[in-house]
Amino acid sequence: MSRYWRVYLVLMMDDFNSLLLTGARVRLRAVDPGDVAKLFRIISNSRAHLETWLPWVEYVQTEDDERHIVDQWTYEMQVRTAIHLCVISEDEIAGVVSTSPIDWVNQRTSIGYWIRPEFIKRGLATESTAVLLCYMFEKLRLHRIFIQAATGNAASNRVIQKIGFRHEGVLRENERVKNLFYDHNIYGMTNEDFKSLKEHLSSFLR
């Protein structure tokens, strides 16, 4: 089967809006418009924590700002160009884990995540990322997934390393956050890497 025929088959599948993934301690479900008010409240209450490393936080100043984001996410999931999931712990939204636009031709994408302060240091970012990884490699049959973290963001780098991503280099002054440019570590995982880590990653699944 040609690469382009495989891409066609993937794009003809159901959208991601009903996606629900389950880990040992978290559930990941698709973000939907009904989450707008709650997500905006969480972001507003967590602003001091989130804006240190995340450039988009300063642009979410009103509930309408968040609604535009969620509307875009809903569309992207409907047409299967990206995945955006609420991290649910103790029946609350603890954060979000997302992909960048999926390159179906080259079978690759990247992952990003954030966790609200009340839920950090519980391993939720690690587990959520591992669960999404398993879905993308096993169900979507992607070939490569990468992830970036500011070199100074020790917590995020620990999450990525714990999962088993390989460090591939440093992107200098890669992202601007509040007028400061941060270097980023870039990490990658191929399908072959995933196969060798499958037993390790399965510990995060139910």
Primary descriptors:
single chain; 206 residues; alpha+beta; Aminopeptidase; 8-stranded mixed β-sheet; 8 strands
Structure notes:
α2 (36-45) packs across α4, α5 (124-138) packs across α6 and α5 packs across α7 (191-202). The protein has a single domain, classed as Aminopeptidase. The protein is α+β, with helices and mostly antiparallel strands. The chain starts with a helix and ends with a helix. The model is unreliable at 4-9 (pLDDT under 50). It has helices at residues 3-11, 36-45, 47-50, 63-78, 124-138, 154-163, 191-202; strands at 20-22, 27-30, 84-89, 92-99, 108-115, 144-150, 166-177, 180-190. It contains 7 helices and 8 strands; from the N terminus they run αββαααβββαβαββα. The relative contact order is 0.14. Strands 1-2-3-4-5-6-8-7 form an 8-stranded mixed sheet, with helices on both faces.
Note the topology.
Blueprint: H1 3-11, E1 20-22, E2 27-30, H2 36-45, H3 47-50, H4 63-78, E3 84-89, E4 92-99, E5 108-115, H5 124-138, E6 144-150, H6 154-163, E7 166-177, E8 180-190, H7 191-202
Parallel strand pairs: 5-6
Antiparallel strand pairs: 1-2, 2-3, 3-4, 4-5, 6-8, 7-8
Helix pairs in contact: 2-4, 5-6, 5-7
* CATH H level, superfamily name: Gcn5-related N-acetyltransferase (GNAT)
Biggest sheet overview: 8 strands, mixed
CATH fold group: Aminopeptidase
Oligomer: single chain
The number of domains? 1
| Number of DSSP E strands | 8
How are the strands of the largest sheet arranged?
1-2-3-4-5-6-8-7
The pLDDT mean sits at: 92
Helical/strand content category: alpha+beta
Low-confidence stretches at least 5 residues in length (pLDDT < 50)? Answer: 4-9
Question: Helical amount among residues, as a percent range?
Answer: 25-40%
Strand content: 25-35%
**Apparent shape:** globular
